[in-house]
Specification:
The protein is of the alpha+beta class. It has 8 helices and 4 strands.
């Protein structure tokens, strides 16, 4: 028997502390506290204080839950409002042109003159870029190539089926899946169970077009005296 802990528990109980409080303070099981202090009777004042404390804790928890619920609802209102604003704008082909160029600017390959390559783990980004390549860049279906990058312990067939469905590129047009640790996973082996996906188009002219569109957008938005040299010109 832990005599020191038992003695401390009994002293605390006589002072009017609750079983849960004593358990936390002494660092023993609640069942032990109950056994050690079962013969100690609390005064009317002590019982009243514990009862009021219990209701106080319960009310605090109720308020916390209500606050979190209200906060989630408030955030949802802002989110739904933003969704509605965009849905009411009837996005045009011109909007797709700029969205696709921006996505490629951020995530596309800019180091190989003959290759247009967009890599991402977000299926929505892949779908948008496929729409961009088809409707803005006029890339025919047979020119697309798919490439899955996956952790070695994951199911490559499942990943290929998934990305083929998302992109619309047949698996027969996929390169062999690369088994490697993806930097985007931040060393968490299963954070990307289906890996990342690359859309590839081998077309020098298209590559140069996209680079030119990006340059044109930049020169339109940034004043000439504030422009910085384009590091991608070395690949032209």
């Amino acid at each position: 028997m832990k005599k020191a802990e038992k003695d401390q528990a009994r002293i605390l109980r006589k002072q009017g502390y609750s079983m849960n409080e004593i358990t936390r303070m002494v660092g023993v099981a609640k069942s032990s506290v109950s056994l050690w202090t079962k013969d100690i009777e609390l005064t009317v004042k002590q019982r009243k204080k514990l009862s009021e404390h219990g209701r106080s804790v319960e009310s605090v928890e109720r308020r916390r839950h209500a606050r979190l619920t209200n906060e989630r609802a408030r955030r949802r209102v802002f989110f739904e409002k933003a969704v509605t604003e965009i849905r009411n704008k009837n996005l045009s082909k011109n909007d797709l042109f700029f969205l696709g160029a921006a996505l490629y600017w951020g995530e596309g390959s800019k180091t190989s003159r003959g290759t247009v390559d967009f890599t991402n783990a977000d299926p929505r980004s892949i779908q948008i870029m496929m729409k961009y390549f088809k409707e803005i860049c006029d890339v025919p279906n047979e020119k697309f190539r798919g490439h899955v990058i996956l952790h070695p312990h994951l199911d490559s067939a499942k990943a290929e089926q998934y990305w083929s469905r998302i992109s619309g590129i047949p698996r027969t047009q996929f390169h062999k899946t690369s088994m490697q640790h993806n930097k985007a996973s931040q060393n968490k082996k299963d954070s990307l169970p289906l890996g990342t996906f690359s859309i590839g188009v081998y077309d020098t002219v298209l590559y140069l077009q996209i680079m030119g569109w990006m340059e044109g957008i930049y020169s339109q938005l940034i004043k000439k005296n504030k422009q910085v040299p384009c590091k991608f010109h070395q690949f032209l």
